[in-house]
Amino acid sequence: MSDSQRLGEFDLIRRFFVRDTPAGTARRDGYGGDDPAAGIALGQGDDCALLEPTPGWQLAVSVDTSLADVHFPAGAPAEAIGHRALAVNLSDLAAMGARPRWYVLALTLPDIDPEWLTGFARGLHALADRSGIRLVGGDVTRGPLSITITVHGEVPRQRALRRDGAGVDELIAVTGPLGGAHGGLQAWQAGARDPADPLLVDFLWPEPALAAGEALRDLATSAIDISDGLVADLAHVCRASGVGARLEVERLPLAAGLGERLGEAQAQQAALTGGDDYVLLCTLPESVRDRAQARLAEVGSHLAIIGRTVGEPGIHGVPPGRVGWQHFDVEVDDHPETGAAP
């Protein structure tokens, strides 16, 4: 009898997802506390987990579903799939300036492949350990490959970063390079499989900007993680805040190797619209610029100023073309020099 025939749902959960956190495991970049189990009154194994949030902090909760060949290539390494599924959820916590605490996993599998599950769990657990987040429950069922993760984080009461706080004449900035994930997707589709390819790393192994989010929490007026694309996500902030934006596209920080791979024009387009970069986009007053840059440098990040908010609605300074994944229409000035109608 094969492993896949022997393993039932509960055996699978126990084998791959129930684990003791090593003693002394600390949150990456010094996130509070050396005990990832803190706050867990009852973890895996019952109908619900029982959790105790830190007094004076608010819970930040987010859920994302990742589907094979929609959000990630089904043929990607299982370890990368596990990492990526958790990373995109942690990125939402980063955008709010929240500390990761707990997560639950709902995994749908077409069949039970112990080798695949070993790699998936390795990628998932490695990022969880570095980020200080603990798996407290979940579910496994049979069907087309799908991964749904709900993350729980904490942020000091009334101090979360939000999308609706930007004001007019503030700086627009990002915390890392843009366009790499789009370049990596194109490389994957063209047959590239070199695990050291920096663009493939950007695509398959995104790193949530958790430390940057906490560093910006008392300085930025608004923030969002770049998942749909710079222009589309900036539009979300502008709508929520009631402002417009003027970008300086020549100042966009491009991912390493992107220009050489795609050419200058396509690299800039990837930076504007590609999505899946999972760096933070934020607004902040000019008066805190130096402090923000110093704080980010302390946590190994960077703040690149790419524009300024304006009173006129819309996103200005963007060349004609796609604007990213659009959940809503994005108003873009296709004539950045004059603003004239076509």
From TrEMBL:
Gene Ontology annotations of biological process type: thiamine biosynthetic process; thiamine diphosphate biosynthetic process
GO molecular function annotation: ATP binding; magnesium ion binding; thiamine-phosphate kinase activity
InterPro entries (UniProt xref): PurM-like_C_dom, PurM-like_C_sf, PurM-like_N, PurM-like_N_sf, ThiL-like
Annotated residues for binding of ATP: G138, D139, R163, S227
Top-level taxon: Bacteria
Coiled coil: none
Broad EC category: transferase
Residues the record lists as binding Mg(2+) 2: D64, D92
Binding locations of Mg(2+) 3: D47, D92, D225
EC number of this enzyme: 2.7.4.16
Chain residues that bind Mg(2+) 1: D64, D139
Miscellaneous information on this protein: Reaction mechanism of ThiL seems to utilize a direct, inline transfer of the gamma-phosphate of ATP to TMP rather than a phosphorylated enzyme intermediate.
Record function comment: Catalyzes the ATP-dependent phosphorylation of thiamine-monophosphate (TMP) to form thiamine-pyrophosphate (TPP), the active form of vitamin B1.
Family: Belongs to the thiamine-monophosphate kinase family.
Name of the protein in its database record: Thiamine-monophosphate kinase
UniProt organism field: Kushneria sinocarnis
Gene: thiL
